[in-house]
Every structure is written in C-alpha cells, then in structure tokens.
Amino acid sequence: MAQLDTRQKLAILADAAKYDASCASSGSTRRDSRGGKGVGSTEGMGICHAYAPDGRCISLLKILLTNSCIFDCHYCINRKSSNVRRARFTVEEVVHLTLSFYKRNYIEGLFLSSGIIRSSNYTMEQLVEVARQLRDVHDFRGYIHLKTIPDADPELVHQAGLYADRVSINVELPTEAGLSRLAPEKDGRRIEGAMRDMKGAIDDGRDARRKYRSAPKFAPGGQSTQMIVGADEASDGDIVVRASQLYDRFSLRRVYYSAFSPIPDASAVLPLKRPPLLREHRLYQSDWLIRFYGFKPKEVVAATEDGMLPLDIDPKLAWALKFREQFPVDINRAGREQLLRIPGLGTKAVGRILTSRRWRKITLDDVARLTVSIARVRPFIVTADWRPTLLTDRADLRTLVAPREQQLNLFAA
Question: Which Gene Ontology molecular function entries are recorded, alphabetically (predicted)?
C-alpha cells in the first residue's frame, strides 16, 4: 500500500464513516474548560451535523480508525472482499486531528469507529487508547462517542465506557435470519450479550455515583445501536418490534435507522435499489410515537399496510385513520394520553393545552395557534366552539388530511 499523508487518510476514512448514522451527544455530561483547565467542552444537544432546537448546527469529527476489515459482511463497503482504497490512522494521528480541529472551532467532539484489523481485541485496544490519550494526556473535555467492536474482551469494552460519553454496538439488521445471510461472521446473540454487559456496567456506574461522589463516570450518555433498513426482507413492523425489544432489554438511548445504500461491486444477494429515504423517516417517527407519545409497538404495527408504514402520511395519522372510533377527542376534557394521539399535536402543544384549559375553555382558534395545519387536526377534535359532526367518518378523510405534494422552488426567497 502506498504511503498516504494525513489529509489523504482523512478524505478516505471520513467518507467511509458516513454510513454510520448512530452519532449524537444527547444525555452527555456537561463539561467545559473555563478557568484555564483542560481542552474543549461538551453540550447536551445533538451533534454530528445535527441541528439543535435553537437552530445551531453542531458537528464532530466522524471518522474510522481504518476501513480495512477481516469480516466480509455483504452490505458493507469496507468488507474484506471490497476493492475500495484502504487507509489507517495511527492513534497519535487521530488524537492530533481531534485537538487541531477542535482548536480551530471546526468540531465539538469525536465519533470514532473502525473496521476490524488483526482481531477484535486489537482494534478495541486502539480505539480505547485514542480516548485515553485525549482524556488523560490532553485533558480533552469534549464529547467522545466510541463504537465498540463485536467479540472484544469485556474489560476492553468497560474501559471504553470510562473514557467515552457514549458507546454503541450495531445490531446491524433487524432479524437473525437477515444477519446470518448477510453477515455470517457476526452472531446476534454475542452482540446482544455485549449490549447486556454494557447495560449492567452503566447501571453499576450510576449506583456507584449515588453512593460515592469520587466514583468515575461511566458512559454518561448511555449506549445506542443502529439497524440497516432495506438490505433484507424485514418489514417495518418487524423493525418496530425489534427496536422496542432493544429499548426494553438494554435501556438504549437511541436506535438509529440507516437506509440501505447500494455500494460499488455489491454482492449479488443485496437489493439492486435502495429503499426510499422516506421509509427511514417514517421509522424514526414511529420510534418517537413509542418513546414520547405512549404508543405500544403493536399499535404502531396495526397502522401498517401489509407490514409497511405508509409513505404518504405519518404513522400517527395512519393510526388515527384506521381507528376512527377513538375520535373525536374533547380538547377540554381528555387526558394527556388521549391528547397525544391526536394527529398534528406534539408534546409541547399538548402541554400548553393542559396548562391553558385550567383557566379557560380552549377554542378552535387556540388550537390553530399550536399547530402547523388546523385542517389536519380539525376532524379529530372537539373544542368549545367546534364539533366535527360527520367529518371524522368521511370516506375521503385521508385525502383531506394527507399533506399536499408540493414542488419546492430552488430560488425562493
């Protein structure tokens, strides 16, 4: 392999990392370097080219240690049999890049993953050493997310949690059959075992912090995982159920979804076309319904059509249209759980309704101020001055409330 300079390595390994979606800093411990001590700071918002609620774009250095790998997973562009150009950073190069980029105000942290070289333990040792040098040698206080390596020694994975804000291991595919067919060298039970061990270590770390203030913090941002969507035959219903199981069993902070993207020299067992990106978006919406809106996985699955979420409307609206007997909901009388099921009302809008109605009756105009489209909400609610009568039962209701397709103007002001 020809010798590459750092800039060339960065171009290769940053591009190779783009397929990993599971990077965010929510839930991390807040740290800063005020007072002249340490380097960097960390925020509690999203990171990795995400947008915070106030509109700020927050980014981090997202790279692989190497794109060489001893595994031959069919869906991975960095698989052993792929003919992509290979590169590898040294530990010192990653540390230098992270500090240099941070001091130039390019990034707010580091997301580091890797292909597997030599062995799982050797690769995990290299990742941990990067984090150790940043924390112990350079007193770096920014955000660090480490992707743990399958089958690595539990002690090495534990060390990762001592230095990183968040750790993660990808389950890769939603079904065991899909994983066996497309990644035969990976074992779903071992992956879940590693996630179970990490959950136990995080729980132990929190217990220790409650008892002893001097106890070290352990992965304060928790753990996350990622599933590839569209590479196998798993339906949206399968994915929703699997994600819910992972949340329940391992107390995950997030399950990320990554739409399968065809890669150069792809294996013959892979689909020829990528799934629509809107499918990935609908899965994130269904994830939100379960985590923040009180929906059960079986309720989200019930809103699917032959196991697939509709692409033209969001899952919440799909559920409401399918179970119209639950509507209309009286805005002035219903409890929080019922209000959260109304299409077009988010958690903040419901909170404001509950607060406001303690002092006066809520009208249709009041609801209109809390939602983007009152026309979408109107068939499903009763207010002090509005009742939908037969509107909720109309056969063409889906057409009336579905968002209109609109061609965006590239040069609009």
Answer: catalytic activity; iron-sulfur cluster binding; metal ion binding
Q: What is the pTM of this model?
A: 0.85
Read off the DSSP letter of residue 81.
T
Per-residue model confidence (pLDDT) at position 35: 55
Evaluate whether the domain defined by 323-401 bears CATH number 1.10.150: yes
Q: From CA 377, how far away is CA 344, in angstroms rounded? A: 6
Separation CA 162–CA 148 (nearest Å): 13
CA distance 298 to 240: 9
Sketch the domain layout of the chain as residue ranges.
6-219, 323-401
Q: Interhelix angle for 315-322 vs 277-292, to 10°?
A: 70
Regions in the chain scoring below 70 on pLDDT:
1-2, 21-58, 264-266, 405-413
Residue 43, pLDDT score: 42
Residue 89 near residue 65, CB atoms below 8 Å: yes
Residues 75 and 183: beta-carbon distance below 8 Å: yes
Q: How far is CA 75 from CA 71, 179, 187, 246, in A?
A: 11, 10, 16, 22
CA 116 to chain centre: 23
